[in-house]
């Protein structure tokens, strides 16, 4: 069993963008989502992308008028983001999103934490700490967009085997093993080398988060829920910090 950072560096980072299909199409999809939800640059025009990966959301946000700070643990993915962003106003920051209040020292108008970043945290307490940190960093009236795969309902039998993507030389599938609070994700990657197929494999844990639990926590922290929907197994939440809200502490001390 590896942790999330090791799993990405040893296996997934190299194939991360490939998993989602053509890069430009994924960026266009994210831009369309933001436009449909009315995410537009205003105020300082600054956005924060937590768990940015190779930049699907960051690039879409810059194309909508934002200046973006993109945080990710993976140096490899941030290097890809730099290659893809061109002259766009994106500042890559290698670091742990759990340290966001130390990595970012300026208020922002928008925070996005998308893909499946939230379940990569180790506990629900860490999720709460991150949500409080987001609230702290947002200007009054600032918005946050979250997406995650809701793993709260256990899949059984063969439904635990999920084909991710394949082409003539690469096949990625995963197998889910359910625990009370987490799911162990076993990634199986087959790569063709000449006439031979080589298997690479790794596993890591994801939190079992539900939309109902997250909505309750967000509202308790001081967010208004404006968007709640599901698409192709992913849950999306769009929330706004109250205009009269003050910054809150980001620790339980």
UniProtKB/TrEMBL annotation:
Biological process (GO) annotations held by this record are: methylation
- Domain of life of the native organism: Bacteria
The answer, when asked if Nucleus is one of the entry's keywords, is no
Q: Could you tell me which InterPro entries the record lists for this protein? A: Methyltransf_25 (IPR041698), SAM-dependent_MTases_sf (IPR029063)
| Keyword Transmembrane in record | no
Which terms in the Gene Ontology molecular function aspect does this entry carry?
methyltransferase activity
| Alphabetical list of Gene3D superfamilies matching this protein | Vaccinia Virus protein VP39 (3.40.50.150)
Which part of the chain is the Methyltransferase domain?
A: 48-142
Q: Which UniProt keywords apply?
A: Methyltransferase, Transferase
Identify this protein by name: SAM-dependent methyltransferase
Q: Which organism is it from?
A: Dictyobacter aurantiacus
Per the UniProt record, the lineage of the source organism begins with: Bacteria, Bacillati, Chloroflexota, Ktedonobacteria, Ktedonobacterales
